[in-house]
Amino acid sequence: LLFGISTMFKGIGSIQFMAVLALTYAFRPTRETIYNYVRMLAVWAVMIIPWHALIYARFGDDFIRVYIMDNIVKRGKYPIEFHLERWWFYFVLLWKELRPWILISLAFPIIWLIKLIRLPKNSTIVTKTRLIWQEITKEHIVFLILLLILLPLASLTRFQTRVSWYALPLYPFIALFLARYGAQFTAVGWVLVGLVGLDASRLIRNEVKPAVEVYTPSNREDIISASQKLPQKELYYLVSFSERQAREILPPAQQIDMTWVYGGNPCAVYYSEKKVHFVYTLDEFKTVAGVAGRLYLYNNGDEQFIQEAGKKLRVKKIYANDEYSLVMYE
C-alpha cells in the first residue's frame, strides 16, 4: 500500500526499493516471505495501473516522453538544468545533514569486520562463507535496512542529475537502521537516545523560532501578491535576463519539456490567481506589448525596453519594488 502511495506521489522511482526487497528475500526464502512479496506487488499494481493506463490512453506518447524519458532516462544520462554536482554530492549532503549519526552507523560494519577477522584462520572458504551467511540470516532485518540504504544510494550516485531532495527516501531507512542497530547494544542505545533528544530539541527550537519572527516576503513574492489584487485575468511576465540567458546557453540535452515553461517562478501562477504568459524573448514580448489594459510584469533592468515596446503608448506603473514592476499601457 505504501509503495503504491509513494509511486502515485513521486513516480516510478520507488521501484528500486521494491527491487531491493526482492533481493533481500534471499535471506529467508520461505513460502511466507514469497507470498507476502507477491501480495505486496498485487496491491501496488492495483493502486498504480488504473491511473497510469488512463493517462496513457489520454496523452499517449506525450505521457511516456514526460513521465519516463524526461524524468527518468534523461535525468539519468544528463545533468538537467545546470545540476552539475559531482558523484560524491550525496555523501557530502548526508554527512552535513546527519552527523553525528553517520559516525555512529559506522560502528556496525566495524563490528562485522572484527567478526570476520576473528574467524578461525584454518577454516576453508566454504566454512567461512557458511558462517558469514549464518550471521547475515540471523541479523537479516539489519541487512535488509542497510541494503535499502546502500543500493538506492548507489543508484542515485549514478544518476547524472543530482538534487538534494532525491535523497529524502533514504532518511527513514537510515533512522530505522540506527534504531535497530542501537537496540542490540545497551550502551549504544542510551547514546542514541541522548542524541535523539538533543537533535529533537534543536529541531523544535528551529521550528518554533520562525513563529515569533515577522516574515518579510521577497521582492518576487511581493510583486506577485500585488498582481493578485488587480482585476485582470491574465498576466504577461517578461522573465528576467538571467533566465533568458540560461535558455540560450543550456545545451538541448540538458533540457526537458518543462524547463522553459514557468520562467523560473512557477509560484507566480498560484499566487497571482491569473493565467500567466511567461515571455522568454524580447522579440516575443514586442508582439504582446503595447495593448492597453493588459497587465505586464518585468524586472526593473528591462524598464527601458518596456518603454520602447509600448508602441507610443504611455506606460502606467501600478506597483513596483526594488526588483520588479507591474505596469499597463494606456
Verbal overview:
The protein has 330 residues and is α/β, with parallel strands linked by helices. Helix content is 62%, strand content 8%. It has 16 helices and five strands. It has a five-stranded mixed beta sheet. Strand 4 and strand 5 (324-329) form a beta hairpin. Helix 1 packs parallel to helix 3 (31-59) and helix 9 packs antiparallel against helix 10 (170-183). The longest helix is centred in the first third of the chain and has 29 residues, at 31-59.
Question: What's the total count of β strands?
Answer: 5
Largest sheet: 5 strands, mixed
Helix content: 55-70%
Order of helices and strands: HHHHHHHHHHHHEHHEHEHEE
Low-confidence region ranges: none
Look at the helices and sheets and give the structural class: alpha/beta
Rounded mean pLDDT is: 82
Query: Per DSSP, what share of the residues sits in E-state strands of 2 or more residues?
Result: 5-15%
Compute the number of helices: 16
CA(first)-CA(last) distance:
58 Å
Major β-sheet strand ordering: 2-1-3-5-4
What is the molecular shape? elongated
Q: What does the secondary structure layout of this molecule look like, with pairings?
A:
Layout: H1 2-10, H2 15-24, H3 31-59, H4 61-77, H5 89-98, H6 101-105, H7 107-117, H8 125-138, H9 140-158, H10 170-183, H11 186-212, H12 219-228, E1 234-238, H13 241-249, H14 267-272, E2 275-279, H15 282-288, E3 296-299, H16 303-308, E4 315-320, E5 324-329
Parallel strand pairs: 1-2, 1-3
Antiparallel strand pairs: 3-5, 4-5
Helix pairs in contact: 1-3, 2-9, 9-10, 10-11
